[in-house]
Amino acid sequence: MASMIGAQLYTLREFTQTPEDIATTLRKVSEIGYEAVQVSGFGPIDKKELRKILDGEGLKCAATHVKFGEMQDELDRVVDEHNILGCEYPAIGGMPGEYREDEAGIRRFARDASEVAAKLKEHGMTFGYHNHSWELQKYGDETALQTLMDECTPDVTFEIDTYWVQHGGGCPVTWIRKAAGRIPLLHLKDMAIIDGEQIMAEVGEGNLDWPGILAAAKDAGTVWYLVEQDVCRRDPFESLAISLKNLHAMGLK
After folding, report:
1. Which of 10, 193, 209, 248 is most buried when burial is the number of CB atoms within 10 A of its CB?
2. Whole-number mean pLDDT of the chain?
3. DSSP 98
4. Which of 228, 205, 224 has its CA nearest to residue 11?
């Protein structure tokens, strides 16, 4: 499958809380030039209605973010909803807090996530784990993120977030390469410095090593390049447009 660019719609969460707003937002995202989205931060909407809107705008549902507890306790519903959306990449936006207390908790999550991933695989779906910066903290002799990569089965994939790895003191290129073969989804956001503060920026407007990141992702087998910006200093739709324009200029089509 060729690599494709999508918009992580957590970026537009303020504009996706009603079915009417979701329809308007997806139309704008399509007009900007995106070919896919990651569904995250949405208000209530029937998944069949959402699929109809997506199809009408020519958008694919590349991936989602789902709560881990729902994957554990309501797997059949999660699978049915992803089948409706035509989406094979359900992911979680972060590790539940009860696992984060110590190294034993990280390892327990790795076991639990591997169990969920195995069940999703039976339905032709791939479990994804999205990191923030706290996973770069060391628990014992290694970071939580390294422990997860070591302890999770290969069925668990890693939705590496370029900004959050850098925020945690890691190198996005290094971690993308560590996840080679297990990184179908990649979150793209840039880091800039303004008045001495680290801020999220549009892709190409900050200081991250984009040639290195994109080369590593290509080598690692990334399928979906998902643009996300949790906090924007301008209109979020404009931010998504700037990131897409810059990625095209970098050669990612």
Report:
1. 10
2. 97
3. G
4. 228
Residue type, 218: K
Name the β-bridge partners of 158: 129
Alpha-carbon distance 37 to 39, whole Å? 6
CA-CA-CA-CA dihedral for 68, 72, 74, 77, to nearest 10: 70
Which neighbouring-strand residues pair with 37?
Answer: 7, 61
Hey, what are 121's tokens? 């695989």
Tell me the whole-structure pTM to 2 decimals: 0.96
In one letter, which amino acid is 176?
I
The β-bridge partners of 157 are 128
Q: Which residues contact 85 (CB under 8 A, 6 or more apart)?
A: 39, 47, 50, 51, 54, 61, 64
If we measure between CA atoms, which residue out of 72, 79, 115 comes closest to residue 96?
72
Tens digit of each residue's pLDDT (9 = 90 or more) over 133-149: 999 999 989 999 999 99
CA dihedral 120, 130, 23, 36 (to 10 degrees): -80
Here the tokens at position 61 are: 């549902």
According to CATH, what is the number of the domain 4-249? 3.20.20.150
Q: How does residue 2 score in pLDDT terms, banded at 50, 70 and 90? A: low
Residues 9/39, Cβ–Cβ less than 8 Å: yes
